[in-house]
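Morning. Coffee machine broken again, so started the prediction first thing and wrote up yesterday's gels while waiting. Chain of 186 residues, entered below exactly as on the submission form.
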Amino acid sequence: WINAVMFGVEATTGVLADSRALQADALDFLGDASTYGLTLWALGQSLTWRLRAARIKGWSLLVMGVLVLANSGWALVQGSAPVGETMMGVAALALVANVVSAVLLLRHRQGDANIRSAWLCSRNDALANLAVLVSGGLVLWLGSRWPDLLVALAIAGLFTHSALSILHQVRDEQGGQQCAEEKESC
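Came back before lunch.
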């Protein structure tokens, strides 16, 4: 619920403040809310279903990375003028929300791909919030939109990196499951 509420807050203020970094972080909150729901559902399922859930999460992170890249490219062409004060205030609130989520999931950070993906999302959000907070300060100080755009691009990179990490772990765990089912030495 923390992530669902923060998605609404950041999506609204991201549009009002014309901040691509806040919009990217809002998208991450939406992904996290969905990820946590899918993770909770998958906990009681077989390994096959948990791997499918993790694969869905990995691909959705990859799609979000592409969307953030496209939105940032559009802002570059269009010429956005983000509001640094709003960026900083919302990023600080979002940081608190994500630190709480990450601490709640900390003991699960080395779990299977399904559980690990939930922790990675909270960790990524906390890192993104710090970056948005700094970029808001730089937007104010420099009077430039570039810090906002650069942080949005960094968030897209973080989405992509996490997506690939999750998808690789799913592939590895799926290979291990197939070996166990076939009773072969792999």
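The mean pLDDT is 82. Going to sketch it on the whiteboard this afternoon.
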